[in-house]
Amino acid sequence: MTALATGVLGALGNDVAVPAYDRTAVTPGIVHFGVGGFHRAHQAMYLDALMNDGKALDWGIVGVGVLPHDRRMADVLAAQDHLYTLVVKHPDGTLEPRVIGSIVGYLFAPDDPDAVLDRMVDPATRIVSLTITEGGYHVNQVTGELDTTGLEADLEPGATPGSAFGFVVEALARRRAAGIPPFTVMSCDNIPGNGHVARKMLAAFARLKDPELASYLENEVRFPNCMVDRITPVTTDGDRAALSERFGIEDGWPVVCEPFTQWVLEDDFGGERPAYEQVGVQIVEDVEPYELMKLRLLNASHQALCYLGYLSGYRYAHEVCQDKLFVDFLLGYMTEEGTPTLPPVPGVDLDAYRHQLIERFANPEVKDTLARLCAESSDRIPKWLVPVIREQLAADREIRASALVVASWARYAEGVDEQGQPIEVVDRLRDKLVERAQQNVDDPLAFISDPDLFADLAQNGRFVAEYAAALDSLHEIGARATLERL
């Protein structure tokens, strides 16, 4: 077994793809906040592909971690010369490993915030990209305005940055003062209009510190929208063991993913950018149709399957999507409720896309856990499913499946499954969600009466009737029987 490092790449064998470029020739051009599995299976992979073609060697990625748990990523990557193995899991059990070399550094911000700022202010840094999760943008779900909870320390006069927002705004301020053109801010999170949201929230944050800087940010900094898609489950000890047993690689934190990958990117950069289109990225003028397709079909369908699947006794997405009852339900939601809210999507056959999603979800090798899909629902349901419900209500169209999904979240959030076993609810609003959900029997509207998550849906008679009936059915006969009844 070989511990992954630059010096051993030539000894890994023909079954493992390795960087075809001289990594010592790669220089930083991108700073990325939130180096998790998805970034390493997606953006870093596309850049590595460009580098393998002898291009973009001045676009190396320097990762930044701002949260305490990011220290582990810093340590693992440093021990491996910032290399890692991306393992594509095909449905037939084939594993396709590839060592990625596009990350050339990693900074753990709490240890040395000045080093992060120096890297961001360096003129060589032309893009700052983000995968900081939906909750990382501090958006109030009802008003759409900035929620400063968690940003208080960064708003103190003269504060040393501690958040991604703090670092981005301070670095832009320093570049402006030094006469250095601003970098492009590229959000890659699952948020409708992610570039627009990033601009609005960062400008609102900057305005609380310096109104002139906020105007500069709004007018001079570019924020391209993009849609990103690749199922990337949490890496397990079994994944590490398979990599070592089958390919002889000891990797402290490999990444596993499905074969499918898609990146639709708005060509709205303030300066240079990598030639992403040469490695399969779709460069378009308008990302919105593609992002709505993904958010309301793929992402919302993940929520449609995860709570009901978990309550029915399943633990993995592929188990759910090999069950015809669930497949029919998911296709019904996508066809009758999700798709009618979409604008035309250029170049996409939506019927084929819906069935492709089922095939992707059913990949038994990916082993995407329902627990992962059920986590942080308060950041997901309001962005992915509530807009579908509101549009369907406004057009007097079908909402039964969507109402059942919300009810299944409320049932799941009670914290006890149908066998009486505890459910670990993982959410930044866990305490509030569980408290409301545990009132479900006595007050069926308690859960959806939270205006921060559902706005005024609890006042819509048609939605309330469908939701209450679904919740009552989940309590009375359980998730599977409820689906059969539907």
Automatic annotation (TrEMBL):
Q: Which Gene3D superfamilies match?
A: N-(1-d-carboxylethyl)-l-norvaline Dehydrogenase, domain 2 (1.10.1040.10), NAD(P)-binding Rossmann-like Domain (3.40.50.720)
GO BP terms: namely: mannitol metabolic process
Q: What is its EC number?
A: 1.1.1.17
Q: Name the UniProt key words of this record, in alphabetical order.
A: NAD, Oxidoreductase
Show the Pfam families listed in the entry: Mannitol_dh, Mannitol_dh_C
For this chain, one GO molecular function annotation is: mannitol-1-phosphate 5-dehydrogenase activity
PROSITE patterns cross-referenced by the UniProt entry: MANNITOL_DHGENASE
UniProt key word Iron: no
User: Which enzyme class, named as a word?
Assistant: oxidoreductase
Could you tell me which residue ranges the Mannitol dehydrogenase C-terminal domain spans?
286-474
Iron listed as a keyword:
no
Q: Which PANTHER family match?
A: MANNITOL DEHYDROGENASE 2-RELATED, MANNITOL DEHYDROGENASE DSF1-RELATED
Q: Which family does it belong to?
A: Belongs to the mannitol dehydrogenase family. UxuB subfamily.
Could you identify this protein by its name? Answer: Mannitol-1-phosphate 5-dehydrogenase
Specify the species: Kribbella sandramycini
